[in-house]
Here is the input.
Amino acid sequence: MSCLLGLAGAVCSQVINKSSDVQTISVNETVSTHITIGEPIEYVDISTDRIAGDIPIKNILRIKPVCDTVGEIHYKDGEVLAIITIVSERYKIQFNCVYFSDRDKATSNVDVKTEDMASYVNTNIDMPELEMRRFEINRKCLGMACSGRLY
Here is the structure.
């Protein structure tokens, strides 16, 4: 829930996402799915233990369905295995992970565009990394002639 405090009092709004409103990723136990976003990932929540994931590079989440102890899969085609929430420095997004036994239906790569993500105020981040880089370039250029190159 977010609130704005003003002279007329507080105005609050709550955003509720239903799993039917969330983007869908098709997964299979033989295919690693890579979700790439444009800034460092700060937090990931995988709602069940049926999907495993890690962050091999700061802006990529890698996921895959989990097999049982003998390496077998007992999921049904079209079954939602988990809802994944990804929070970056300024944005968040959610995905339904839906299982398919046909590996050709699995999503291997998802490039998330900023406009597809919900804006998020991350109180742990004072200045996003991209803005910090721009600030540093501008600071270096103060008081000297810049070459005009884009960095």
